[in-house]
Amino acid sequence: GSMATTERLGPSRTRRNSNKNILTRIRHGQISGGGLSRGTEMSEALLQERDHQAKWHGIPVMLQRLYDSSHLNSDLSHIHSIIKEVASFLSMEAMSFVTEERRTAQESTSPNTYTFDLFGGVDLLVEILMRPTLTTQTNFPKMSDDIVKDCLSVLYNCCICMEGVTKSLASRDDFVMFLFTLMSNKKTFLQTATLIEDILGVRKEMIQLEGIPNLPSLVQSFNQQQLANFCRILSVTITEPDLGNDDKHTLLAKNAQQKTNLCPSHSEVNQVALLNIPGFIERLCKLATRKVSEASGASSLLLELQDWYTLLDNALVLDTLMQMATEDAEQSSTESPDESSLVTSPLRHSLPQSMKIVHEIMYKVEVLYVLCVLLIGRQRNQVHRMLAEFKLIPGLNNLFDKLIWRKQTSTHVLHGQNQNCDCSPEISFKIHFLRLLQSFSDHHENKYLLLNAQELNELSAISLKANIPEVEALVNTDRNLICDGKKGLLTRLLSVMKKEPAESSFRFWQARAVESFLRGSTSYADQVFLLKRGLLEHILFCIIDSGCKSRDVLQSYFDLLGELMKFNIDSFKRFNKYVNTEEKFQTFMTQINSSLVDSNMLVRCIILSLDRFESQTDDVRVVEVLSECSLLSYMVRVENRLTILFRLVNIINVQTLTQENVSCLNTSLVVLMLARRRGKLSFYLNALREKEYTEKYPGCLLNNFHNLLCFWQRHYLNKDKDSTCLENSSCILFTYWKETVSVLLDSDRTSLCAIASYIDEAYMDLGRDFLEV
């Protein structure tokens, strides 16, 4: 490269500031694109002169030499030696950055990296890496894998220490796509993958997988270990950016967003691109279900030290390793009586084994995450068919005792259910496994694949005995794809769930997974299958006796209890047997009343069941339960139902509706639909009006409810909203839901079933302006 004219050095007294001037000029040149485009366009003498004062450690001089010797036909070994020298300055900073708190340290703690970037080092390395792809010349020397590796390591170290570098690399599409092509080289795969992951994490715009050159053949060239690492990179490309906190987003905001995004999002397009790669899902299923012993030999564990620190910049992983190794060592030491061999053997043998296990778990976490995202995406049915065909569920069932739930992991406190936590690999693995089960069985007939042959036969027998037809999905289940072994996956899950410590956060996910097996149209046989395994008593123990305080866990247990009891006489009998004192009943009701947002689905199930039982009074068992069960007697009393209705309507308003609390609105509607069926609607509306007057805020409650129902219409009558869920869960036809809402919103003030008739003229439009969205 030709050098700019050498700047003359002025008299010595200006020297103190001239250091600053160089920096200002470089920075200015970088920003404006004029002036010095990189620090290397200065004389070596000048740089040497400043170097000592500025504590640059000779980095600008090294870059100067690198720049001079980095044209196409230059001696690559010379380039390599300079890069290695630079690397030694930067890797120390990166190491200390990681061991301190990543990303919180300031640039000042990484002066070498800062200098390297300031003098154009990052751009220069990108140029050296990409140069072969930018030239038509064919006979220039090929860069060795080692040079590529070292360039990537230096860039990664810069990214660790300076977020600005990560962001600027992320904004260069050409470089990001180029990195993907480097992944086809086994020797540089790990460095490339680590760098890509960092870069994609800060990109403003989601990358389009379709744009990666030869994506299918790239993925097909990966071995299983690389495929697992690739999944880690993929996770960013297939997840909706703000999905992190789905339950907490207001529905108003989500609906507004849907209006603007009519075309499939980037992440949806990326999901399709993955599904179109031949053999992709099949290989993920193999990876998810392979045994630790099947993982390729120990060679993969002897990664270079640097690869370890990039893979494990998570201290928790190392802690887990040591903890597992020590536990395994203690186990084997109790088995071997010979004292002298003790010192040498157990830890030494169990560390490589624990490493293998942790490694395998880390791979599986990434794979399960990708499968889970695909299972809840738009291509859900296609993914379901593939997961069934490639026997994911029986495969996971065979790993359950040996790997997934090897032993009770020490309990950890629950994060908000969507926070991405940096838990130990074992904990994330369990949570991802439970989320996968939840997504797999939620409203899908494939859920029966979670059982084995004996358990399926048991379901048929339950239906036969109760004289009800078998569920169609059960009849259609392909017996070649179900679980084998003594127990199916669902029953294994139940047994660990019962042993889970009271405050363990796994309870939340376990309950969600079991609940999703029951969701959809209520199946009596499914409920009885779980009742016979003591699930109802376990739930009641948790709610009443275990002193559980976690709202998340309680909510998931309430929801599960609702699904287990809905329309089921046996459940109410068992409830009554367990809750056999006034004191226990009061504790139960206190838990329910302490947060209706959490318990309203259960309340809805009780009210629906009561309504059905009242129409079946020719059945002796039903009459018996109605007269004996404390819970049903409580709900029979109209004043109790009214109190619940007041509270439900009071908790929410249109501005605060979310995916989580919209259930309060639907539960209040269920109360009113059942009232309407019995010609009692006007009675309830009048009670709401009287409540307003006694509370001295006329119009508030009813106007709020009116606004909520207007929103309900807009939300649920939208063509892409799924109304079958409401229909299935309530056994009330959706047409009746729509009709009831229309009747309540009728503007005719003479109608006794219209909310408007119960609001005085003066208070009619309270809060209406808020609704114009």
Task: Write a structural description.
Helices cover 66% and strands 0% of the residues. The protein contains 40 helices and no strands. It has 773 residues and is an all-alpha fold.
Short characterization:
This protein is 66% helix and 0% strand.
Q: Tags for this entry?
A:
773 residues; mainly alpha; 40 helices; 66% helix; TRPC4AP; Transient receptor potential cation channel, subfamily C, member 4 associated protein a
Strand content: under 5%
The secondary-structure class comes to: mainly alpha
SS summary, helix count: 40
Helical fraction: 55-70%
Which radius of gyration do the C-alpha atoms yield? 32 Å
Oligomer: single chain
Whole-number mean pLDDT: 81
Shape: elongated
Low-pLDDT sequence parts: 1-40, 297-316, 336-344, 411-422
By DSSP, the count of extended strands is 0
Largest sheet: none
N-to-C span:
60 Å
Task: Describe the secondary-structure layout.
Blueprint: H1 15-32, H2 44-54, H3 59-68, H4 76-99, H5 111-118, H6 121-134, H7 145-161, H8 163-170, H9 173-182, H10 189-202, H11 215-221, H12 224-238, H13 251-260, H14 266-275, H15 280-289, H16 305-311, H17 315-335, H18 339-375, H19 380-389, H20 392-404, H21 425-441, H22 453-466, H23 472-476, H24 489-499, H25 506-518, H26 524-531, H27 535-545, H28 551-565, H29 569-578, H30 582-594, H31 596-614, H32 620-628, H33 630-636, H34 638-651, H35 662-677, H36 681-694, H37 700-716, H38 724-730, H39 734-745, H40 768-771
